[in-house]
Amino acid sequence: MQEHDDIDILVSEVGPRDGLQSIKAIMPLAAKKAWIAAEAAAGVREIEVGSFVPPKLLPQMADTAELVAYARSIPGLVVAALVPNYRGAENAIRAGAHKISLPLSASESHSKANLRRTHDQVIDEVRQITAFIRSLPEAERPGFDGNISTAFGCTIEGAVPEAKVVELARRLMEAGVDGVGLSDTTGYANPAQLRRLVRLVRAEIGTENLSGVHLHNTRGLGLANALAALDEGITTLDSSLGGLGGCPYAPGASGNIVTEDLVFMLDAMGLRTGIDLDRLLTVRQILRDALPGEALYGFTPDAGLPKGYAGGGWGVGPG
Amino acid sequence: MQEHDDIDILVSEVGPRDGLQSIKAIMPLAAKKAWIAAEAAAGVREIEVGSFVPPKLLPQMADTAELVAYARSIPGLVVAALVPNYRGAENAIRAGAHKISLPLSASESHSKANLRRTHDQVIDEVRQITAFIRSLPEAERPGFDGNISTAFGCTIEGAVPEAKVVELARRLMEAGVDGVGLSDTTGYANPAQLRRLVRLVRAEIGTENLSGVHLHNTRGLGLANALAALDEGITTLDSSLGGLGGCPYAPGASGNIVTEDLVFMLDAMGLRTGIDLDRLLTVRQILRDALPGEALYGFTPDAGLPKGYAGGGWGVGPG
What we know:
The structure is a homodimer. Chain A is α/β, with parallel strands linked by helices. The first copy, chain A, has helices at 15-19, 29-42, 64-72, 86-95, 108-114, 119-135, 162-174, 191-205, 222-231, 259-268, 277-290, 300-303; strands at residues 10-13, 46-51, 78-82, 99-105, 143-149, 179-183, 210-214, 236-239. Chain A has one domain: Aldolase class I (TIM Barrel, Alpha-Beta Barrel). Chain A has an 8-stranded parallel β-barrel with strand order 1-2-3-4-5-6-7-8, surrounded by 8 helices. The radius of gyration of chain A is 18 Å and the shape is globular. At the A-B interface, helix 7, helix 8, helix 9, helix 10 and helix 12 of A face helix 7, helix 8, helix 9, helix 10 and helix 12 of B.
């Protein structure tokens, strides 16, 4: 958060990656650019613009290198990208991503199904990536996070041992990542579990090395989990505009927590995000236009802001 | 909570009142009975079965006296009813409600629009009701709560002074109610505001006299607010099965927090509600059948429970 002294919480928009990779439709490059530009103009400081995966696997992400180049032209925006492996990391760094993150699934069954790799193989790949990053001139080195997916449970294995998550966090740090994030990929997390796991992981790797969580709203608990994370001092929260992407395993169920509702919550609580809520709420129209018929989530966009809402807290003081 | 030693949190189902009064369709009496019976069988301990308002104003509630009589036949169920005034309280007590609650809007404009009474007039009515209750033999006296509606903001006035809410809580206690609840009628609340207001009100009237909150999910913050309430030691939470009723002022926006998602959150956190989640999830079908086309909310019913979920906490221990 050192780059963002004027905000309390960094809302990292992941819709162009996690949202778009979860739907069948391919959003045209121009619409992706318009989305990214509009969110940045609303004050969003970090956007995960795509994933460096083979286009054969995820054609929705085929233009990620172009998007990174475009997003880098927006002043002040941190351009993030997901990388599944060493090759993806090379491509992301070549494209100029400021920050890359690699998912490591706490569930080994999920890791094999998703990344086709065992834990050991993923950790090896992380070591190769950090070695490559360290071989670069300092100015060209991206930030590099490891994200532990299925950290709160897995659709294949069910419950995931907390000790396994703690162990993987330690191994990721040892392999050279700058920090570790926890992802509720399956929407299984609850606030008590989140608090417990954040504390356990921080006790192992240090408080400052776990700064972010990636939450889904699959069972409606997304913002409650976000609140629990805030209570633990987490300062980076991923979210997706319009909750785009839903949950491919559960028709009708929401995917990522919704940027609009998250920012309303943070702003109403008096936490500074740097984001203009009114402007943010207008960005949704870009998704509606570019992805007709695609389900969008979130309640604040439908209900509107409270009467007389002026931002920067609600209900404080004499009223 | 003295009647409920075996649970940590009392989930008070308000759908038959707050849900049904907010939709145009009138649910047949038989379906209402089936709903109440099914929720009670799933372990729900308290249900607000209706409102004692003139049938001319709310024809959806015309059968409330019959429902109270029916619900009283279910062993162990606390039968609650809303009363807008003295006359409603008399009818509710005559029908045999175990518990009655009267709304007092923190916003006087809202009070005049909704109850057609000023604050002073409502407080007078509360005094008359408590006098009437005290005139009854002890075994026939219902519990009597005052619920401060629009406590977190009003669609007419906007922000509501916290000092006004505190003052009204004191005046309600002075007028003889057993306890005070806070209602986020408009879905304006955020977790920071909720914590602050709960503390302020409790400092005025005593911790034990504010045990419950009534939350809406209009802007998606419902369960985050519920979590904040739990953190403050609140032990009674209102909710509505399927979030029935939505928000009449905001098409597409959810109304009450959803019983299914709330109970999943509480249960996953290891808090005892006495409710069997699997059985609870089947009750929704009664609403679908009796109210075809009516929007239902909630994510857990669509997504299902986590793989291997056995209730009574999730993610604790070795996994």
